[in-house]
Recover the amino acids of this structure.
């Protein structure tokens, strides 16, 4: 009988533990053999079975007691199930570090409309493991949306599963949103709330935002892999689910050239026939969420200038990376300069330079330096700067400043400002940077953002523009230096109005410390030992002995 | 007289009956609570007039103090408070069976349980009285660890929220352990068997969390919810979740109910 019961238990137990929907065949066989053994025992020794059964009274009360225990278990299980679905959390930590931000909760409620699987791959074993803060964070997501399901998979013990997802080691978080075909995102660092929410936002967005890099004026390429190109910046944007393409503005045969020609023909037709049709859309650049003009070497022609201005006026978003003529070897570009001036900024002559003391053949000399790092503007709380964790590296920057008069509804924000020591140097006839000591001094703006809000009187649509007086910082050579990549993605997020991606302030981690500096000092440790290890336990023991002595 | 009785409105009579009944009910509840309180106080006195409670508390405080010293003595900026409180709960797992093993098993082995069951007290009153008595010992034990946070507040910089929620978790986890210990004590008249049984169940309730991690299915989910550890992790990180509170109260209630059923079974066996 014992063997029969054991086999039944093994059969059932294996089914539960394997987690399979249907038990394997051999589990059926083990279970059946167990049942057969029990039946054989019952038929061969019925008196033994009778002896084992309790009396009628015991059976009655016993089954009542058993049923009540089972019923209570079921009721409590149901209650616990309900509380896992409808729970309330009280986060007692100082900075609410265990609570998702309101932005995340809003996104989970409004955007996640179908099952979303989050799989966190980690390398278990000695020295590895699952960080409790990540576990809590992801469980928090699961708790805030009934559509989210979180799995923690140890790469070492689930190698096959990890291979299927293309994970071969290290920490990887994979998010899948089956409702949208191919909506899969992968985070390869230990995730924080900002990264997870940004990823969810990307996955659940129906349309990828399109970022177009203008080409045709010697701009930086987004396909090349040389130091001058911007393929790394393109990759960074694609990771954020943006669609990045190049836009040959007025190259012969391009889409835009054809559209410009068609518009010109339409205008000529209207003029010759005296008809005046209502123009449905003045801008020929449509379907472009952000237009990037990165390091042009030649100026815009008249048509292009009009196209870009029309685009901006039609709620356009423009990122303009202009270089001083000295670093990109180009001539003056008045149309670009005028564009900047008309939209709130002003480009000054020269190149930003700082002087450094260096040992030359003529001894210690102060020489001009055009490569430098700038801290983000501390006095501004602009969205772009929230995503920039520190200084950014620039090389050869145009000095810029705010235009004396700004249009109503325009908001000009300097993103990077130089110190007063910085000067706007000029070039000598040989092409070298010349410092006479009479150059205008800072502070200058190295980058600024301008936004035109909706003006009630004119109902003018809103546009956004960011101008940086350098394009090297976003090139393959510099994009990984300092916080350059964060600056680039943050600018694009702002321009494309994807503020929710990073507008989640990072919560400072809870740090509990004892003592000062790097830990407790020796005096504190000694007093701790004395109190907690010796005095208090010994005190309790002495008190207990006294009580026992009195009562013995 | 009959006329006077008829003149009293029916609604008024009903109200007065309800009031009387509720007064009787309240009086009954009060008496019941009083009985539970008497049994609990008697248990508490038994513990604190013998050397056992003091010895167990002293051992607990010594081990906890040693761990505390190791934790704060690290030359590090960050104190791992959550693991520290989890370790305090682990020590409880060893101490609680020693505290609870005598609760009902001793009464059974000495035969005093028959006296208890034939006296005018209900099984619920016995079980709850015993539970609250030993829970009082546990509360004293938890309060005697107050010097840990006091020193942290004085010499360190800690998030008070984590300390409060961790203490609540320690207190409730102790309640769970005690209810299981009481249930194990109700099953047998041998204190040793009761102690081992309680320890085994507590260990299982702790380790079942492993299944929750290794199996990504409904059974794994169930194991994770059943495990004390998963609830403790939440609470020691500064979060008080209604699901954790309901879990603690459910487990305590379930094992006390089971212990009451076992105690009742002596009447019909």
């Amino acid at each position: 009988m014992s063997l029969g019961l054991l086999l039944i238990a093994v059969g059932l137990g294996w089914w539960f533990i394997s987690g399979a929907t249907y038990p394997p065949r051999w589990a059926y066989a083990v279970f059946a053999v167990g049942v057969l053994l029990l039946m054989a025992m019952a038929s061969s020794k019925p008196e033994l079975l009778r002896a084992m059964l309790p009396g009628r009274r015991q059976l009655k009360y016993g089954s009542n007691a058993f049923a009540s225990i089972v019923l209570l278990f079921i009721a409590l299980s149901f209650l616990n199930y309900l509380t896992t679905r409808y729970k309330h959390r009280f986060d007692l930590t100082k900075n609410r570090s265990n609570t998702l931000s309101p932005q995340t909760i809003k996104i989970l409620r409004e955007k996640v409309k179908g099952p979303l699987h989050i799989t966190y791959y980690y390398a278990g074993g000695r020295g590895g493991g699952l960080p409790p803060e990540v576990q809590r964070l992801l469980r928090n997501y699961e708790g805030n949306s009934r559509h989210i399901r979180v799995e923690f998979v140890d790469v070492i013990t689930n190698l096959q599963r990890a291979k299927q997802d293309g994970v071969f080691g290290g920490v990887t978080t994979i998010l899948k949103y089956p409702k949208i075909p191919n909506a899969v995102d992968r985070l390869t660092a230990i995730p924080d709330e900002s990264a997870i929410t940004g990823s969810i936002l990307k996955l659940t967005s129906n349309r990828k935002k399109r970022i177009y890099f203008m080409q045709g004026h010697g701009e930086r390429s987004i396909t090349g892999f040389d130091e001058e190109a911007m393929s790394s910046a393109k990759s960074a944007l694609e990771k954020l689910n943006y669609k990045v393409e190049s836009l040959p503005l007025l190259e012969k045969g391009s889409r835009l050239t054809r559209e410009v020609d068609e518009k010109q023909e339409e205008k000529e037709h209207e003029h010759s026939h005296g008809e005046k049709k209502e123009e449905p859309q003045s801008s020929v650049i449509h379907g472009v969420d952000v237009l990037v003009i990165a390091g042009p070497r030649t100026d815009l022609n008249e048509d292009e200038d009009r196209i870009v201005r029309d685009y901006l006026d039609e709620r356009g978003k423009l990122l303009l990376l202009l270089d001083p003529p000295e670093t990109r070897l180009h001539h003056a570009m008045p149309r670009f300069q005028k564009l900047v001036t008309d939209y709130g900024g002003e480009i000054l002559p020269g190149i930003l330079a700082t002087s450094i003391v260096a040992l030359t053949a003529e001894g210690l000399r102060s020489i001009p330096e055009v490569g430098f790092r700038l801290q983000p503007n501390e006095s501004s709380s602009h969205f772009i700067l929230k995503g920039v964790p520190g200084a950014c590296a620039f090389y050869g920057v145009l000095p810029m400043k705010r235009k004396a008069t700004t249009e109503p509804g325009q908001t000009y924000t300097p993103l990077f400002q130089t110190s007063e020591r910085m000067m706007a140097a000029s070039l000598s006839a040989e092409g070298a940077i010349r410092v006479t000591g009479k150059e205008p001094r800072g502070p200058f703006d190295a980058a600024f953002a301008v936004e035109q809000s909706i003006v009630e009187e004119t109902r003018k649509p809103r546009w956004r523009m960011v101008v940086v007086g350098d394009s090297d910082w976003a090139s393959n050579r510099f994009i990984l230096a300092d916080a350059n990549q964060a600056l680039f993605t943050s600018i694009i997020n702002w321009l494309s109005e994807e503020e929710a991606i990073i507008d989640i302030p990072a919560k400072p981690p809870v740090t509990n410390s004892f003592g000062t500096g790097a830990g407790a000092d020796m005096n504190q440790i000694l007093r701790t030992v004395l109190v907690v290890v010796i005095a208090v336990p010994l005190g309790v023991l002495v008190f207990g002995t006294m009580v026992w002595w009195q009562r013995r | 007289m009959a006329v006077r009785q008829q003149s009293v409105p029916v609604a008024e009579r009903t109200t007065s009956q309800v009031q009387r009944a509720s007064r009787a009910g309240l009086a009954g509840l009060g008496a019941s609570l009083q009985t539970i309180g008497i049994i609990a106080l008697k248990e508490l006195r038994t513990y604190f007039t013998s050397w056992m409670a003091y010895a167990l508390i002293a051992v607990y405080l010594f081990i906890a103090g040693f761990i505390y010293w190791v934790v704060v003595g690290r030359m590090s900026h960050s104190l791992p408070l959550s693991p520290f409180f989890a370790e305090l709960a682990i020590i409880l797992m060893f101490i609680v069976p020693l505290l609870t093993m005598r609760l009902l098993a001793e009464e059974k082995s000495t035969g005093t349980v028959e006296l208890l069951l034939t006296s005018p007290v209900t099984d619920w009153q016995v079980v709850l009285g015993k539970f609250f008595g030993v829970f009082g010992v546990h509360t004293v034990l938890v309060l005697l660890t107050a010097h840990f946070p006091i020193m942290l507040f004085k010499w360190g910089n800690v998030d008070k929220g984590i300390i409060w929620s961790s203490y609540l978790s320690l207190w409730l986890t102790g309640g769970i352990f005690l209810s299981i210990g009481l249930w194990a004590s109700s099953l047998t008249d041998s204190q040793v068997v009761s102690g081992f049984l309680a320890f085994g169940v507590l260990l299982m309730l702790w380790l079942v969390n492993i299944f929750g991690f290794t199996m990504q299915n409904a059974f794994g989910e169930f194991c994770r919810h059943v495990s004390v550890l998963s609830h403790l992790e939440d609470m020691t990180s500064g979060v008080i979740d209604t699901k954790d509170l309901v879990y603690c109260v459910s487990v305590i209630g379930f094992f006390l109910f089971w212990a009451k059923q076992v105690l009742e079974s002596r009447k019909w066996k």
Remarks:
- Chain B touches chain A through 73 residues (CB under 8 Å).
- Confidence is low (pLDDT under 50) at residues 1-6 of chain B.
- The beta strands of chain B are 156-157, 239-241.
